[in-house]
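Backbone-to-sequence.
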């Protein structure tokens, strides 16, 4: 064998050894807790919900799943548990669509939860790519198929995370490593499940959630140069089709699971912006609710709450960081409403809350 051939052989053997070592390290540390709950090393978590949820579903004990968008992302599991007497798992994903939510919820159903609390709105039912074409959702990690497991174990990026977690577990290194773990260099900076995607203690709540923020957003989105964005994603036929595929099918396939579905308390300015800048979009939103509410209430395992007409909250603009996202104080109110079964939609009058909302929107006069 020539020298060049021997060198090539040595290189290949060394490369294979490094790859196998990385795979062994990832399996032993298991940063995502995809195989088991953390035992050898302290658990750490990522703010990337679409990735982290695959591990949470496998590693956590829960009887209640909490799903939603950015309107549900800042809830604390401990608050959900305390208010609702549950052992919850928050799987909310910022900007998520119904196809993504359905996929993640279906994976969670394999753990047989008793209850799903699902924050819905009309916008989640917009058209979206197939899951395997969604670059943000690591679908094969949820499926735990050969492709997903191999990609996880043989990932160099994940090996770096594993080494970091090992270093953090060594007492002399822990303070230095903890200071460097900031979520930018490393993907697993959070040490408690309860802190995943929650607001930091030093977050300026009053500086972010205030009437000025809501009004400024209203003016921006109703500016004729930008108002076309209000209609993005609003196609009635597509929304109904996606609603049937992603929400109704999941409910039908899990008759033993209780679904607590609620429509979040958007500020009144959200609907007024539609009224003033895109009336056709407002009609689609109303028509979709008129379809979805009676359809959901056909199922005995569904309880539907509509918070969109709770005037004490939705007309108090200081509760909002824009025209949609509500404050942490409103998060707690939502949990109390769910616990008290307040604002539950009457099966005999499924459109009553929608009619109240329509009347509020028609009557509202924007006075900066």
């Amino acid at each position: 064998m020539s020298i060049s051939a021997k060198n090539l052989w040595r290189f290949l053997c060394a490369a294979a050894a490094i790859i196998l070592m990385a795979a062994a390290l990832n399996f032993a540390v298991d940063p995502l807790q995809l195989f088991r709950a953390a035992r050898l090393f302290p658990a750490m978590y990522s703010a990337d919900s679409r990735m982290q949820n695959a591990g949470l579903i496998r590693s956590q004990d829960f009887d209640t799943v909490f799903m939603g968008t950015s309107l549900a992302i800042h809830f604390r599991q401990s608050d959900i548990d305390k208010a609702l007497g549950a052992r919850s798992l928050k799987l909310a994903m910022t900007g998520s669509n119904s196809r993504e939510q359905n996929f993640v919820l279906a994976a969670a159903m394999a753990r047989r939860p008793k209850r799903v609390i699902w924050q819905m709105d009309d916008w989640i039912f917009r058209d979206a790519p197939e899951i395997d074409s969604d670059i943000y959702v690591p679908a094969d990690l949820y499926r735990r198929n050969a492709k997903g497991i191999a990609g996880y174990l043989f990932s160099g990026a994940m090996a770096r995370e594993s080494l970091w977690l090992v270093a953090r577990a060594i007492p002399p290194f822990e303070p230095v490593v903890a200071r460097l773990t900031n979520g930018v260099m490393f993907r697993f900076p959070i040490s408690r499940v309860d802190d995943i995607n929650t607001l930091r203690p030093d977050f300026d709540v009053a500086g972010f959630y205030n009437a000025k923020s809501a009004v400024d957003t209203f003016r921006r989105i109703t500016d004729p140069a930008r108002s076309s964005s209000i209609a993005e994603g609003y196609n009635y036929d597509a929304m109904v089709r996606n609603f049937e595929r992603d929400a109704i099918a999941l409910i039908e396939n899990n008759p033993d699971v209780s679904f607590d579905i609620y429509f979040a308390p958007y500020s009144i300015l959200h609907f007024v912006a539609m009224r003033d800048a895109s009336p056709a979009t407002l009609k689609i939103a109303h028509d979709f609710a008129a379809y979805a509410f009676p359809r959901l209430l056909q199922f005995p395992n569904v309880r539907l709450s509509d918070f969109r007409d709770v005037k004490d909250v939705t007309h108090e603009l200081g509760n909002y960081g824009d025209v949609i996202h509500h404050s942490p104080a409103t998060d707690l109110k939502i949990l109390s409403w769910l616990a008290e079964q307040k604002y539950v939609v009457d099966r005999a009058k499924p459109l009553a809350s929608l009619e109240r909302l329509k009347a509020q929107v028609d009557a509202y006069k924007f006075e900066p």
